[in-house]
TrEMBL record:
This is Peptidase. Residues 508-526 have a biased composition (Low complexity). It comes from Streptomyces microflavus. The keyword Nucleus does not apply. Residues 55-75, 464-539 are annotated as: Disordered. The chain crosses the membrane at residues 540-562.
Length: 568
């Protein structure tokens, strides 16, 4: 701490006045230097599919089958753009190969200029990625199988900083897409699973797919994605596996020529198992031609299997190209499973002590004792919520991000700026077995009440959802946060869970929290897990401190009186 001496006060004051004079003298220059430069116009980027396959032209007549390619614009700004824009399509590369029409988005108008070009105009662009128009593509009459060409898209926008008539034009980053007549169409067959298994149940998964396109596929990539409650015990050497909190993904490269018109199945069926932690799970299985899997997939960190090679064998021989159906939407299937299982969500609270005016940190939340993991991976909604009623005599000074204040009755609260008497904190979309939700609140003790208790409840995610349908033990869904509880006498809250993983939601580990301090800088004490509280925070210690201060005050008064008598 820097010491302040009265002798240095004039020097410091003089130094401050001199610095102020210098700042005032340099004021105009400083203001000019600090003036922000005019923000540059955003750089818009055009995008879309790298390549689109077209159904061959139907010589026998009938309505042509069209493919769609969405043209997108990325606006990197946080706000929408309203300066007006123009997109120009160069169609010379697909003349005689594809017929092009447009399906423009809201507020966009498109017009063709013969068969060589087209223009789309609009006034606004939303922030981020948005689809401006869809290209409706059909094979041109007389086009041949395998014929290919490109469409180049350019754009420009008026600057947003001046009036539209005077603004310079800002070019978009251009984009080129390739169009090819014909191609394979890999179609995944839906499997007849038992969708209500029991934990430990195993089912065969004879993956079967067909090529209904107009040409052979040169190798395929089989993608298997299954959520945490499922498992496929086989680990093939031609499959790359990645695992995260929710999913395991296997991408298996299968070599060979997969003929148009033929159907294929795995040489040996997979085994899909509902594990002991299964509850609500998904299994997604899809097929793509090799070389068309997005680069981000192959770049993902993965582990190669050490088992046999996964192979696909013909189920039927190719007869002829039939049922042309180049639709990417049928390359994938998914199965949803509802396993009869349970998960025990256990709430925990905390203890803390401090004098009036002190701020303390308390930790609360819940942990999942399993055996099931719980996830809403289809809807993306929260699986549960922690409902915290603040102890009497305390005010919340800090709450975790995502927690919302409600009224004491649990109703919606318009005022979001002032502290609330009650908080609801949503759990994430998935909670692993052994995971949970760990929260830290800052509480200011406005009035030091002995044993003031707040309530912690883990319940359904809605404001009026009291229970958890998967939890067979509702008795441990509540805990308490106690302030200034009597050491060794009063009841204690449920203990915090042991550290089992990384910090944060789903880990099962309680994050560390710094101790609070009083408004005057005096430290406050915090108890953890229902253990004994520090003696400095007990009522007896507070009484002793008050007594000591009174004795010291009395002694000083007697000393002063004696000194006056000696001078007299």
């Amino acid at each position: 701490m820097t010491r302040f001496s009265p002798r240095t006060a004039p020097l410091r004051r003089a130094g401050g006045l001199a610095a102020t004079a210098l700042l005032l003298a340099a004021g105009p220059l400083t203001v000019a230097a600090a003036a922000p430069a005019r923000a540059a116009d955003p750089v818009f980027t055009l995008g879309g599919p790298a390549e689109t396959a077209l159904h061959p032209y139907a010589e026998g007549g009938g309505a042509p089958k069209r493919s769609t390619a969405g043209i997108t614009v990325t606006n990197p700004a946080d706000e929408g753009y309203e300066g007006g824009f123009t997109l120009t399509f160069d169609l010379t590369g697909v003349a005689g190969i594809a017929d092009v029409t447009f399906d423009p988005g809201p507020g966009v108008e498109c017009a063709t200029k013969g068969t060589r070009s087209a223009v789309c105009t609009g006034d606004t662009l939303a922030p981020g990625l948005s689809t401006v128009t869809g290209l409706l593509l059909g094979a041109a009459k007389g086009s041949e199988q395998g014929a290919s060409g490109t469409i180049r898209v350019t754009g420009e926008a008026r600057g947003a900083t001046t009036t539209p008539h005077a603004a310079p034009l800002t070019p978009f980053t251009p984009f080129t897409t390739r169009v090819t007549v014909g191609g394979p169409d890999l179609v995944m067959r839906k499997l007849p699973f038992d969708h209500e298994p029991t934990p430990g149940q195993k089912q065969q998964a004879p993956i079967t797919f067909a090529n209904r396109g107009s040409r052979d596929a040169d190798g395929v990539v089989l993608t298997l994605r299954y959520s945490r409650g499922l498992d496929i015990p086989q680990r093939y050497s031609n499959c790359a596996y990645t695992t995260d909190e929710t999913w395991t993904t296997a991408r298996c490269s299968v070599e060979g020529a997969f003929e148009a018109g033929a159907t294929y199945t795995l040489a040996a069926p997979l085994t899909l198992e509902a594990t002991t932690r299964a509850y609500r799970d998904l299994f997604v299985y899809g097929i793509q031609e090799a070389g068309t899997v997005p680069r981000a997939f192959s770049a993902a960190r993965s582990e190669r299997g050490s088992g046999a090679v996964l192979r696909a064998v013909p189920l039927t021989k190719a007869l002829a190209a039939r049922g042309v159906d180049l639709e990417p939407g049928d390359n994938e299937q998914e199965a949803e499973f509802r396993t009869a299982n349970t998960a025990d969500f256990v709430a925990y609270g905390d203890e803390a002590s401090g004098a009036a005016g002190a701020t303390v940190a308390v930790r609360l939340g819940f942990h999942n004792d399993g055996p099931a993991w719980i996830g809403r991976i289809r809807s993306g909604g929260s699986v549960a919520a922690v409902d915290f009623t603040v102890p009497q005599g305390a005010t919340v000074t800090s709450a975790p991000k995502g927690c919302r204040g409600v009224t004491a009755e649990g109703a919606y609260r318009e005022d979001r700026k002032t502290p609330a008497p009650r908080y609801v904190c949503p759990a994430p979309t998935t909670v692993r077995d052994g995971g949970g939700l760990d929260l830290s609140f800052g509480l200011r003790i406005d009035k030091a009440l002995i044993g003031a208790a707040g309530r912690v409840t883990v319940r359904g995610p809605g404001l009026r959802e009291a229970g958890l349908p998967f939890d067979p033990k509702p008795g441990n869904n509540t805990a308490r946060v106690v302030l200034n509880g009597q050491s060794g006498g009063g009841p204690s809250p449920s203990p915090a869970p042991p550290a089992k993983g990384g910090p944060g939601a789903g880990s099962g580990k309680t994050p560390s929290a710094a101790p609070g301090t009083s408004g005057t800088g005096a430290p406050s004490t915090t108890g953890r897990g229902g253990g004994s509280l520090a003696s400095t925070g007990s009522p007896a210690a507070l009484t002793a401190s008050v007594t000591a201060i009174a004795a010291l005050t009395t002694g000083l008064a007697l000393f002063a009186a004696a000194r006056r008598r000696r001078k007299a």
